[in-house]
Design goal:
Blueprint: H1 2-16, E1 38-40, E2 47-51, E3 55-61, E4 70-74, E5 80-83, E6 94-101, E7 105-114, E8 127-137
Parallel strand pairs: 1-3, 2-8
Antiparallel strand pairs: 3-6, 4-7, 5-6, 7-8
Amino acid sequence: MKALLLAAATFGLLGCGAVGGNPAGSGSPSAAPSGGPTMTDADENKTLTYHVGDTFELVLHEQSGWTMWENVTVSDRAVLQPMADTHAASVRGVTLAKFKAAAPGTSELTATASMACSPGAACPALARVWKATIQVIS
């Protein structure tokens, strides 16, 4: 009986704060940025939103059995501009990059890594791609 009351109270409280939509006449909601100042390995295959003028850093860590992440690229430099960060320094195995959300639109952010093989050993030609989608809004 206590479990049933606890479940009913929990669902009742959860429902109290769940109000959807906008008040009448308020127009469309303002999209809040979903991306923070730093993107990491955990943001792989996610879509993040930034406002024009926002800047953020990409910090990727080398995965076991793979080389460091490299070839960090964007699909649309008009939307997402790479920035030089002369103060950034990383430790071995960490790839850093900095970007500015320059114009409204969508751009793919990618990086690649290949298999880490011992010198002179036969190595399969395998590659791994890290990807995230960046939406820039006004």
